[in-house]
Amino acid sequence: RSGEMAKLTQLIDNEVFRAYATYAAIVLLKMMLMSLITAYFRVTRKAFANPEDTASFGKGESAKKYLRTDTDVERVRRGHLNDLENIVPFFGIGLLYALSGPGLSMALLHFRIFAGARILHTFAYLIPLPQPSRGLSWVIGYVVTISMAYQVLKTALYL
């Protein structure tokens, strides 16, 4: 039935797509958690970026001391930015990969390694763990995404 769109129920019944949806949800929730961690560090360190955020700590000049950068807040923000730079491409490439018809075991391997690498990367950033743990976890996740992109291009090469 070439040329027809797959029904949504067919997609949901696809084991590879369900695996992708599972791991995409995990890493997206992990990335969202970074926003909450940033907020926690901002409040506990009293380090805010916007004047209106300091209102509960005083008015005028007394509140200005809370408009500052903090090394812990910035560390969490850098980890969150790294998530955005890596999870967003995984989200798109992983979807294309899941739809390209890979075997379930190979797809699960890609998805699990990526999710594990991103979780390890977050711990390495927040604790912080000694290098090369953060660098290796980043490389592993990046290589997984490149591998999926390669498989998509190999499967559907219309360049």
From TrEMBL:
GO terms for molecular function: glutathione transferase activity. Its EC number is 2.5.1.18. It catalyses: RX + glutathione = an S-substituted glutathione + a halide anion + H(+). Its main location: endoplasmic reticulum. SUPFAM superfamilies: MAPEG domain-like. The chain crosses the membrane at residues 20-41, 87-115. Keywords: Acetylation, Endoplasmic reticulum, Membrane, Mitochondrion, Mitochondrion outer membrane, Transferase, Transmembrane, Transmembrane helix. The keyword Glycoprotein does not apply. It is found in: Endoplasmic reticulum membrane; Mitochondrion outer membrane. GO terms for cellular component: endoplasmic reticulum membrane; mitochondrial outer membrane. The keyword Transferase applies. It is a multi-pass membrane protein. It comes from the Eukaryota. It is an enzyme of class 2 (transferase). Conjugation of reduced glutathione to a wide number of exogenous and endogenous hydrophobic electrophiles. Homotrimer; The trimer binds only one molecule of glutathione. Belongs to the MAPEG family. This is Microsomal glutathione S-transferase 1.
